[in-house]
Design brief:
Radius of gyration: 20 Å
Structural class: alpha+beta
Number of strands: 4
Number of domains: 2
Helix content: 25-40%
Order of helices and strands: HHHEHEEHEH
CATH class of the largest domain: Alpha Beta
CATH superfamily of the largest domain: Lrp/AsnC effector binding domain/regulation of amino acid metabolism (RAM) domain
CATH topology of the largest domain: Alpha-Beta Plaits
Shape: elongated
Strand order of the largest sheet: 2-3-1-4
CATH architecture of the largest domain: 2-Layer Sandwich
Largest sheet: 4 strands, antiparallel
């Protein structure tokens, strides 16, 4: 698992990279040749840029595009986990071993970890919450059921804004 902070040290993307990513975001099935034509670049330039973007870990896994509802998990919940700090690494491993955990973040504030889970129904969510609570070092959990996704995951507005000036 790559730490989230490693992404902060990534070299910034230039305007050509941003244009390429925006074109891919709008039509992810477009071929390299079609992307090159759309952007007015050579096929070799597009292929080289895509290879560099892949090398920089710009692309997330395809797994992030799979809708968990289609897998039979219509409920999404967020579990705020309060932990014993000295056991954080072991707790993270235990939480990652729960299949219904689809992502987790270390956070500031009252809780220590924010865990996004999916469940079949309320009873299943109760079971999953119990698994998180059973992890050695977890002190307590606060669970919030997602009522609906208001703003889906997106980066298109950032791509449209273009590269940020160097700091």
């Amino acid at each position: 698992m790559k730490p989230l902070l490693a992404l902060g040290s990534m070299q910034p993307l230039d305007l050509t990279d941003m244009r390429l990513l925006l074109a891919m975001a709008k039509d992810p099935r477009r071929t390299v040749v079609a992307l090159a034509q759309r952007l007015g670049l050579s096929r070799n330039t597009v292929q080289a840029r895509m290879a560099q973007l892949e090398k920089k870990s710009v692309f997330l896994s395809f797994e992030r595009r799979i809708n968990t509802v289609s897998l039979g998990y219509p409920l999404t919940a967020f579990i705020h986990v309060h932990v014993q700090q000295q056991k954080l690494a072991a707790i993270t491993g235990s939480i990652a071993a729960i299949p219904e955990v689809i992502e987790a973040f270390g956070v500031t504030g009252q809780a220590d970890i924010l865990v996004r889970v999916v469940a079949v129904d309320a009873e299943d969510l109760f079971r999953i919450n119990g698994k998180v609570l059973a992890c050695d070092g977890v002190e307590r959990c606060d669970t919030s059921l997602a009522m609906g996704e208001l703003v889906p995951f997106r980066v298109e507005p950032l791509l449209e804004r273009g590269p940020l000036p160097p700091t």
